[in-house]
Amino acid sequence: MRRDWLSLKTTPWSLGFLLTGILLLTQATTLPSRVDSWLYDKAITTWPAPIDTKVALVTIDEHSLDVLGQWPWDRSLHGRLIDRLTESGAQTIVFDILFPEPTSSDQILADAMARHGRVVLPIHYSPATDLQLMREQLPAPPLEEAALALGHAHVELDKDGIARGLYLYNSLGHHRWPALALAAEGKGLPPVASADAPAYTNVRSEFRLVPLAGGADTLPAYSYVDVLRQPAEPKRFAGKTVFVGATAAGFRDVLSTPFSGLSRPMSGVEFHANVYSASQQSTLISRAPQWLSLALALMILLILTNTLPRLKPAVTFGACAGSFVLVLCTYFIALRSFHTHLSAANAALLPMIAFPLASGLRLAMTNRFLNRQLDDMARTPQLSLPEPSRRHPVQLLEHLRSLLQPQSWLLAEGNDILAINGMSLNEAPQFSKAGQWVHQGNQSWIRLVRGGKDYVLGLTLPDDLSREVIQLYLQKLKLEDSCQHITKAGIQENISKRIEKVRTATERLGQMQAFIRHSFEHMPDGIIVTDELGVIRFANRHIEAWFKEPMPSLSGLPLTRLLEGHDPREAAPWHETVSETLTLLQSRTVDLKIHNKDFLIHLAPFALPDSDQSGIVANISDISELREQQRQHREAIDFISHDVRSPLVSQLALIEQLKRDPGHIDESQLEQLGRLARRSYHLAEEFVQLARAEQLTETRFYECELLAIVENARDSVCEQAQEKQISLQVGGTEDLWLKGNAELLERAVINLMTNAVQYSPAGSAITVQVYRAGHLACLAIADEGSGIDPHELPLLFDRYHRQKRSEMSGNHGTGLGLSFVKTVVEKHRGQITVDSAPDDGTTFTLKLPIADPMN
User: Fold this and answer.
1) Residue 222 has pLDDT above 90, yes or no
2) Could you count the other beta carbons within 10 Å of the beta carbon of residue 674?
3) Quick one: which of 90, 310, 345, 725 could link to 35 by a disulfide (CB 3.0–4.6 Å)?
């Protein structure tokens, strides 16, 4: 199985081949460019570029148009503006306004430009039409001559319509023009003739991305009309480069930027001012070579293909996320620190593709493996206990006869007798429902339905104490299936065979696991399973209860440490026993004592099939009851050999004496013979009553009333108390109902009252009180006798134990009466306590649970 699993592992080659193929397919889409644009926009908008303090805007806004009139304006106004800015100390003036056609006021503007000396004008490339080719639109000749420099005002739009950058140089044929911002810096190159470039070809070079300072209206701007009509303000414009252009709606250039999208576009003049601001601070962003992007993608590809197949599925997501973060960090460091835009889309897409792809490969691999295992598991036999309701009545009768050994039986199909022994079909009662037992004395009957046929089964059970228990057990048996098993063919047809295989295999595996788990947990013995080093790997609930160790602490605990901690021994220490079991592969059986209880531990080595693993299975049996029975057996033999044998020997000796002289039979001899016979009978009666108490089960319980039981016991002892003139008073008026055996409870109360009368002086009083304490019915019997010595109290309820004081005073007992009382009380889930002191009387208190009124 492991070899098959390893052969299905994903290899770096298979993962790398699939990743490369998918990545190549994405190149035919717009996804990589969109990812690159998204990354750039997030970076630019998250960390806006700083504003150069030497930049200002003079804007032709709506207010200026309202005051100065509609466009076009007389160019003398621009001359006046230049003069105002000259007075204000402006270092450079850049117009983002085209002046292609000559006008009568050009000379006024040219003179103003000459007076300032640093005025930059734009050129424009008119697009090609059907009638003419692309051409340059230069300023009017006087203006061109007066300008410090000319620069192109063209801004490059990406495929999504967003303005992110521009080409620093444009050339059409023989002329090469710098961008407007570069011309303002004095970096413009003179027109260069190129013999190779056609006159109609637009040659662009040195593309740069522009890190904007923000959205529209971020740079400081002043209205055209305000600057024109107000006095010169050196504080605003001194030493600055002033960009003049249109910002009025419907009149300006409209450029969507990463900050605005299509909602709040930026004017062209502000965009060029941002270009100038970035150029002044050397933060214009250049694009990295294509090979660098490919190298980054290849590095990520190698990392993923070599690590993912070796990682656990739970770590795969973390590895892909880490690779993605690595790409982002590389991208942002290059952008922020080196002002280089690295195309990271392919490298960023690889981890996002690799995670579902690697997971899918693992799922496919797991699916193939599970299909093989499911085929194997589906062929395994089903492990479950057959239901009695599915068994044929003939087989059912055979099983019940083997289990219960009935005195007689009968099985009939309709009126046909199939099996009979000592019973008649005429004795069968009327059945109200199939599968329900009907009990008549020691006879039990049931009607069964199998395959549409009616069967009648009857049993005659032994008429002893076990009959009620057997009939209760029969009542619990489910011999008739009341549920109708309907095959849902329509649903099964819609479920795939694979899902059905999974369901069947899972059900069988669950049944097997549940069967094994419950079998181990409900075994009568404690089970411990260790590994080859003797470390506990499994223990059932008996081990937890007997050793009083929580299950989590048992797992991983060395077996020798557990045994030495509860039963340390010097001779044959536990580590020798455990190690010899493992090394010599021999079973060991050793006595064990845990918390004053006797156990027997059997250590057996084992080895797992098709594996090098081995260990120990330790079976621990509780033999405390067996040892207690052995002790009681020895005590009983000692008791019989002395206490029972002595009166019998005395009786035989007295009878032999009477036989030697039958004519002279004295009345005292007959009385002595009667006392000896009564003593023998009393001993036998005590043994019988104790045996009945020990065999008592709750199946023989019924509702009984404690006060009535006590009064009946009082009546039985009343004559004995009157002989000694002892007052026997019973107090209590409340009916306290119990679930128990009234006969044995009455015998237990009689024993306590008899002891009280026997050990009380003549003329004293015995008080019997019946009362309720919470959910307990209580009985207290107090006398004024000689009391019990403190050292006798712990042994008071032991079998065959008799007090030295009572023996010396002539009150000879059997030592079984109080043991009988305690056994009866414990069988009723109650408790008995004694409060006594020498010469101060004794009080016995019984506490029994009151019957639940809901039952």
Assistant:
1) yes
2) 11
3) 345
